[in-house]
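Quick one, T. Sequence first:
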Amino acid sequence: MPPCYASPGSLWNRFESLYWANRPPLDEGKLTGIAFWQMFLREAEINLEPGAVEELNNWDARLWTTQNPAMLAWQQQLKKHGLLTAILSNISDNVLASVEREFDWIHRFDVLVWSYQAHMVKPTPLSTAIRW
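Structure tokens:
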């Protein structure tokens, strides 16, 4: 990492601090993706053109929307052997919208638990109390 990004007062450190400060409320469903980015920009004292919040929201969702082919293959093998499969994920409304839009395999799982809908994030003890 270049030294300009590593210094304590760097733009990167400020970004990272602001980004993670409100991520738990986003994943708990206390904020929408749009509200998260509006708060981020306000706290960062950044003014952007109209439409920028929606663009940030979409880019953020895409950042968290990746596939793991080995895991998907394993899930298919488990299903072939009669086992139920589930996803328990810290995920926000914008990320779920991206997942549902991009990945047809999502509905192959028997149980889907999204933190923002359950209003809790793992490893919150309640998240481990969900009974399948």
